[in-house]
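Saturday, quiet lab. Running sequence design on the structure tokens for the scaffold JK sent over.
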């Protein structure tokens, strides 16, 4: 299996011309070519590790997989470096006979960078893949304090970030019990989420009703899409969402919380799932953006 971190000699420079050589630890970024039934689908830049989860989670977001039985096998293909060692950078997923292959009417032979999960899509319409799950009817409610605690709980389990300072993370929490189900790290925020969803798929937990997806960075459009496709009713991020992310969350009835850190958060959609109720929220550190306010802020 590929390395997760790499060591490199660097020069650290401080104000006042203080120069010091040192060895730094970096997060590894390598390509993973994903194939479906032997045909190349996409290449993503990722941190090696949990590659099957990454690939299957990606296929959930593409609307291909929805249950563990939809996948027949997953295996690494031959791919060697200059020394003849397997790079473990080519993964082939064989779908079960009843599963339709991803459509290839538009080119999918592209590279997904570690910063973007939807590069190469032809249009916004093609990105909003129809999910086999719904989240709007999920009865989940979460206490304000419990939601505000999630970023710190996630940080406690970011082992590679603690060493490198260079990885995103995603965690899945049971919103009813507060149990931490899984944490995954990656150079790509969308990869970290795919790994979480892939973990859940392998255990036949989809749809993830009653769960919260906590991410370490901003809430982008593709992260909201991935949550909806996995049936997750609540997405919590320590940073800001994009306008398109907020729109998609509202359209699908997903609770989107941003700037979840310290003593406050901002709710962009389905604020009713975060308790206490509206007449107490003014004193709870929770601000709610209505749809009209959101439009006015653009």
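Result came back. Writing it out in full:
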């Amino acid at each position: 299996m590929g390395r997760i971190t790499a060591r490199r000699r660097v020069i650290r420079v401080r104000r006042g011309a203080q120069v010091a050589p040192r060895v730094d630890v970096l997060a590894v970024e390598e390509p993973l070519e994903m194939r479906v039934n032997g045909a190349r689908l996409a290449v993503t830049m990722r941190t090696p590790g949990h590659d099957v989860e990454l690939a299957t989670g990606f296929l959930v977001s593409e609307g291909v997989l929805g249950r563990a039985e939809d996948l027949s096998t997953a295996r690494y293909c031959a791919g060697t470096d200059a020394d003849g060692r397997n790079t473990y950078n080519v993964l082939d997923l064989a779908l079960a006979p009843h599963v339709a292959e991803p459509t290839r009417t538009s080119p999918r032979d592209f590279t997904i960078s570690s910063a973007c999960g939807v590069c190469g899509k032809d249009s916004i319409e093609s990105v909003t893949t129809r999910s086999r799950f719904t989240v709007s009817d999920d009865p989940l409610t979460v206490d304000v304090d419990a939601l505000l605690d999630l970023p710190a709980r996630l940080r406690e389990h970011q082992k590679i970030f603690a060493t490198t300072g260079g990885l995103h993370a995603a965690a899945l929490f049971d919103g009813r019990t507060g149990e931490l189900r899984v944490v995954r790290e990656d150079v790509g925020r969308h990869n970290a989420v795919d790994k979480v969803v892939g973990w859940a798929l392998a255990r036949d937990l989809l749809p993830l009703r009653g769960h919260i997806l906590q991410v370490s960075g901003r809430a982008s459009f593709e992260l909201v899409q991935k949550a909806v496709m996995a049936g997750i009713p609540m997405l919590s991020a320590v940073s800001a969402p994009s306008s398109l992310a907020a729109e998609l969350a509202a359209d699908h009835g997903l609770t989107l919380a941003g700037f979840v850190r310290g003593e406050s958060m901002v709710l962009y959609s389905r604020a009713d799932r975060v308790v206490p109720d509206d007449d107490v929220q003014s004193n709870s550190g929770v601000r709610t953006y209505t749809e009209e306010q959101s439009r006015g802020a653009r």
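Notes for JK: Residues 142-278 form a domain with the Cytidine Deaminase; domain 2 fold (CATH 3.40.140.10). The mean pLDDT is 86. Ask whether to fix the surface positions before the next round.
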